[in-house]
Amino acid sequence: MVETARSLWLDELTAEGTALPSRAALQGDHQVDVAIVGGGFTGLWTAYYLARLDPSLTVLVIEKTHVGFGASGRNGGWVVGELAAGIEKYAERSGIDESLRLTRAIFDAVDEVGRIVDTETIDCGFAKGGVIRMARNQPQLQRQIEEVAHHHELGITDEEIRLLDKQETEAIINATGILGGIMFAPCAAVDPARLVLGLATACEKAGVTIVERTAAEAIGPRQVVTETGTISASVVVQATEAYTRDLKGQRRRLAPFYSRMIATEPLSEDVLAQIGLVDRPTFADDRHMVIYGQRTSDGRIAFGGRGVPYLYGSRISPSMEVRPDSHRLVHEALVDLFPILADTKITHRWGGVLGVPRNWTPFIDYDRANGIATAGGYVGEGVAAANLAGRTVADLITDTDSERIDLPWVAPASRSWEPEPLRWLGVRGSRRIMARADDIENRRGSEARLAMAISRWLRG
User: Fold this and answer.
1) What is the CA radius of gyration of the chain?
2) Are 37 and 238 in contact (CB under 8 A)?
3) Spans of the chain below 50 pLDDT
4) Against a cut of 0.85, is the pTM above it?
5) Least packed by Cβ within 10 Å: which of 10, 340, 343, 349?
């Protein structure tokens, strides 16, 4: 089995002889009701729900390369009912009751994705097994105890999030160093490439037009300028995430952060039995430098983490998607969790970029006066969030009076990132602080208070 630098998810499709659909590029000027820039989850979910709310609309999705090229085809496959900012961040803006309403909506988005997977018969290995988050040192355990107690005080139930002791956690995942854990129910594992391609097919069946190999150069009021023509539309939806930096005048709106992943060869039944994850929960621990993994439907472990996260000037470089040093750290983290995998073949190493707003808070913004809707900034938790965002944007465009249109994340995006070199220095400095916080927690548990204070400061 030859190791590849391509996403496991996209590579498995072609390895099975399933060619990625090749769609025509845009030619000439066009006029439509809604033009959507970006053929990932946000753009496609928006198109999907628009077609169902108002089939008379002409909807055009514009993708620079191919559907699912970006984070939608490269992520960890977590359909997780969380938003990166957390409950408190939105509560500062709109109050705790409204923030909890948003929390419930993102919980429900996990089931909504599952419903569409069933309705559209999308074969993507959707398995709602929750998230098992391990505590592997005392500071992590203390944070988990406080987190669950706080969530229960807010009315989130034990069925949705609950503490596990050491034995309960080890019964689910047999990793090293476990002291306890959290089971967070609103999450499913999925093959994201199969999901995004199935969603694109469902959109086209509903009457949506998708063009590929068409780069948007600029977005203005009711207009998209591309390499091959200009699109006029009543509404333009910008769903460009990390690639927002390619659009004229938007270099600093979202910062592209790198994350990298590896995948093992399919594991034997004996090895899988020793690791656990029988119901395919996704898994992580509570370190500051994020890790994330899943047991795939074909018996691999797909596992990722954040290495060197940011390139000067918000550059996006294909050469950075496979970095021996970063992938080595990801592999070491995996083996640290599961020593039994030390000699297991790694068949895939890949990477990609995710979009991060300056305030680390996902958002939906609809400027009716200029006919521009924008959604994104998911900070790596976008598979479920994009579904809720797509439904919300579709409601706003069609003037559908739903419970979603005034959720507290429907608000203008945060201010832009600082110019260079301040942006680079800030991101790199924050990474060093988080790495140091993990080091403190792992080596000197008595300094947990300092690490926790650093974590709260980094999250704004």
Assistant:
1) 21
2) yes
3) 1-2, 445-448, 451-452, 454-460
4) yes
5) 343
